[in-house]
Amino acid sequence: MSDSVTVNSSSQLPVCKCILSDEPSQEVHIPEYKQRMLSSTLRTEEYLRERRIPELIRFILAKIIAANPSDPANYIVNLLEQCMLFRSGYGKPPVLYEDRHLKAIIKSFDPGDRGWLSAGQFRRAYITLGFLPDKTLQEKIPTDMAIKKLQATQELELFCLLNAGNAEVLTEIQSTNKIYF
After folding, report:
1. Would 176 be classed as within a structural domain?
2. Which residues pair with 117 in a beta bridge?
3. What is the pLDDT of residue 180?
4. Residues spanned by the domain of 129
5. Which residues in the chain show pLDDT less than 50?
6. Distance (Å, rounded) from C-alpha 143 to C-alpha 157?
7. For position 145, which CATH number holds?
């Protein structure tokens, strides 16, 4: 039996006949219990995604690892209370990066103490910290302004994370491009 493939002049490619069926394809019936399961899974995934639950869990775990508390459960309770106070506008933001961390990052991009960062350096600082950089940046950003922008960005990110699923608040933030605390 010869399995050689030849191309005919009508520019049609030959297809193996063994995978083609003469019967029309049939609709697959999915039992009702499987449909309910799939629907429940989709709703759960949408709920978690809309409220950014995995990101919130990563934030909490990062704070626990950074603080290394002797009583992690109590630490989580206190952290969530701080988050709720911040979200309501009555507390300081329990951000992941303290001022000393931000200053160290900026210093690493300005080792010669010029007092400014280029737009590319500032963009890399944003990426290093896990933030999305501004679309429009000045060519030279003073280091003190860079630190303030990074502080504001992480506070805004935390505020948006804590308000995920609250479309009204997030719409207001996007329209005014401000955060109130």
Report:
1. no
2. 141
3. 42
4. 99-162
5. 1-2, 7, 179-181
6. 21
7. 1.10.238.10
